[in-house]
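Q: For a teaching handout, I want to show students what a protein-ligand complex looks like in token form. Below are the inputs, and the small molecule is zinc ion. Please produce the holo structure.
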Amino acid sequence: MIQQELRIYNSISKEKEVFNPITPGAVGMYVCGPTVYSNVHMGNCRTFLSFDMVFRYLRHLGYKVRYVRNITDAGHLENDADSGEDRIAKKARIEQLEPMEIVQRYTVDFHQIMAKFNALPPSIEPTATGHIIEQQRIVQEILDKGYAYEKNGSVYFDVMKFNEDQEYGKLSGRKLEDMIANTRELAAQSEKKNPQDFALWKKAEPEHIMRWPSPWSDGFPGWHLECTAMSTKYLGDKFDIHGGGMDLKFPHHECEIAQAEASSGISPVNYWMHANMLTLNGKKMAKSTGNNILPEELFSGNNNILSKAFAPTVAKFFMYQAHYRSILDFSNDALIASEKGYLRLMEAYGMIDSLKPGSTSDFDVAAWRQSCYDAMNDDFNSPILIAHLFDATKIVHAVAEGNQSMTADDIATLKQTMHDFMFDVLGLEAVGNAGDDSDTLDKTVGLLIELRNQARANKDFATSDSIRDQLAEAGVQLKDSKDGTTYTLK
Ligand code: AMP
Ligand code: ZN
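A: Here is the structure, written as tokens, with zinc ion included.
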């Protein structure tokens, strides 16, 4: 284990707290996964990549992490928890597909996108449809404890009753009295005793395709239940970290707490973590409004927002230049700036091996290395970490130019630290190894460099210069050195 004092901002206490896992050396972490009825957009990716960084840093420190991220394949309902149509079923009906075909298509897509971003797969990736029995068991437990009631084959969580014994709203800071005062829903229009109640089990209408038999009706689970069932099944009644996007805090995570406390009597999570939203034109990226950009549109450049294509690793670097709890606006200018910074970092890293060691060091590498840890220890502050990595690029250039000196040992520590944080913790990749598109780019540019070399060997400088200039116009900058020609993207 690397001994560091990690502090995590806990959404429930609204404070940064020292991280102490329940079992020393081991971490149980649950993150709400995607609803697989359409492609994930860049906003969803930001949240998943925020937690990839958390997972990677915990592993880097030496924790044995069991990271559970579910696949929501039973579909949330259209409106709120209790009314409307199951989104997967709706998509299946429109596209005339079996619901599980939809689920399979978008699960595969999600995995491919996460792999392009070099995100590590979770340790367990359970599905909601694979845990219907576990969900039904929790419904029964809550009924037995008197915190739920059955109506016409559906089962609802009794928020009022729960709130008499325990507090509903502790995560979101909402008070039940205020919620009641602000509600406009007429009780008479609903099967629910109270508009704040939410479905644990819904009876399926005849046309509803995804349905399972149960003691109450042929139906399907309410959308908050799967995460309670799967998190506690794989991580225990009480576990270390639960994460998700900020928009899931209420009602989803609030209801998860209520369900767990009502069934097992135990508050399930020690550290609640919420990642903030990626916005586009100042508005939250969302599937429903169409205000979003898909990862593939970003990688191919095929979109109306950006002037060029960006490698997945550059997009990830862009996201990590903001803290995960800050809102981040997606824009062409910001991505171009991030790409420049990313290339600067990679270039400096590539220069380290050719630095000439000196007999003394002008740079306190050990203090710098600790400052990289300090940044991550401060609630995973990746923008500060990246600022420290940029400091390292300056010293690399200074040593290369002979303006500063570093010993061989310090150069080795610098390289190892940059490697640890750039590749292990942030999971960046060198361009040229950043997915299918850049592999093709590598080969194509390699071929053009070869042709240019042949032209130069034949003293056909008109052709060799033309290749260089045209590549530059297309955004590919060639760099000649005694070891050959390399390229960077402008
Ligand atoms: P969903 O598939 O809608 O359940 O969303 C999957 C994850 O993406 C959840 O953790 C959401 O909170 C998160 N999410 C949705 N929209 C955004 C956004 N614009 N920015 C960041 N995260 C988001
Ligand atoms: Zn969830």
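A: Two things your students might notice: The chain has 16 helices and 15 strands. The two ends are 40 Å apart (CA to CA).
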